[in-house]
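## retry 2 of 3
previous attempt timed out at serialization; input unchanged, resubmitting
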Amino acid sequence: MLIVGEVHTGLLRGRDPMSAREAALLVDLVAGEPVLRLERPRSYVRSPERPVGVDCPLGAAPPARQVRGIGTVLQRAAITGGHVVQGTAWARLARATGSARQPWSHYLARPGVIEAVGRVQAADLAAAFAAPVRAPSALDLGDVAGRASDVVQSAVPDDGRSRERLRLPRTKLRFVVEQAEAAGTPRLTVHDDQLRVVRVGLPAGAEPRLLVAFGEDLALHDWLLTSVIGIVERAEIGALPRDESLRRLRPAVDYLLHLWLPGGRGGELAEQLWETLERRSALSRQWALLRDRIRDQFALGAVAALSAAMPQ
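## retry succeeded, writing output
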């Protein structure tokens, strides 16, 4: 019926970027299950998925006929580039075959599936999950995703190594994938400094984990774009002395600019979704403008320093 999820993205706290081996230890969340570890085209490690049981309203109807969701959410964590951490929670929503609650063994046998009990319309559920504000009692995928990220953050060793303090936002991207006759254009909405919602229609049969990988990839690049925009704004180019502006811009060069690689997760499906998203949102063009502006500032700074060093 629907695939829904949420991804939290932020900076790994308090130290220099980790190696893939070190990062893999942080995301080893499930004993006995292997951690996915990739070195190319950039360092990426991801935990195995673990089911989290849920039994709560789905928030898609008035209280008089509330739709109840029972089943499991899949939770996982990942680290990209040694210092960008993501927590993800996702599930597929399916209509329950009856109104009676089944034993937990029934739901555990279908990991990542939440059965909707009650009079439910797919369009109502999609609208409810895409809404920026949800009822306090409704299923909170963001809470499950945030816990995965927090577990990784809390496992970072305090070994005395530090870097200049970066204050970068944690962003939340919620995705809603609806069944459609043909693939549609992803619709990305930025609601505030933290929350983004992407909705897309795809034909039945699309592999759910590829869709989740696309959501994580989009969340990563939205976070990168948001973070670099903030760094450029704080640099106050043209208002502050150039040396101070360059000092404030340097973290973008040291830690972020090399991580931009959209469409790198989810195979051909992710590449197709990125292509259609770019025509509407132009994320890569905005990134290129920011990147070139930063590089121009460092080029001007180098020219000024060389001129000052030359004998008059």
